[in-house]
Design a protein that fits this description.
mainly beta, 53% strand, four-stranded antiparallel β-sheet, seven-stranded mixed β-sheet, 11 strands, 114 residues
Length: 114
């Protein structure tokens, strides 16, 4: 299984970015998709996740600013990020979770700076 994340880049504080993750297999069924991030010197943390039924979960830092969505027909998951802050700077990873295994993408760098 391969996950290809894209959409990262440099954005000013208050700006927006949309991350996308393309998966090499079907993501419908019993597969939860998620976005995690890792800032320099910090542990990787969950940003948002979405279950097969579409239920979402957000880190407190992401609530009200980020929106996760999935397109099962296209095998993609996206993360719309708004009102970005410098503390959102990190490498963002998409993750595919199923009962038997977890798979990670290679990460895409988001830098929020003026």
């Amino acid at each position: 299984v391969q996950l290809q994340a894209s959409g990262g880049g440099l954005v000013q504080p208050g700006g927006s970015l949309r991350l996308s993750c393309s998966v090499s297999r079907r993501i419908w069924g019993d597969i939860t998709m998620g976005w995690h991030r890792q800032a320099p010197g910090k542990q990787r943390e969950l940003v948002a996740s979405i279950t097969p039924s579409g239920s979402t979960n957000y880190a407190d830092s992401a609530k009200g600013r980020f929106t996760i969505s999935r397109d099962n027909a296209k095998n993609t998951v996206s993360l719309q990020m708004t009102s970005l802050k410098p503390e959102d700077t990190a490498v963002y990873y998409c993750k595919l979770h199923m009962i038997t295994a977890d798979y990670w993408g290679q990460g895409t760098l988001v830098t929020v700076s003026s």
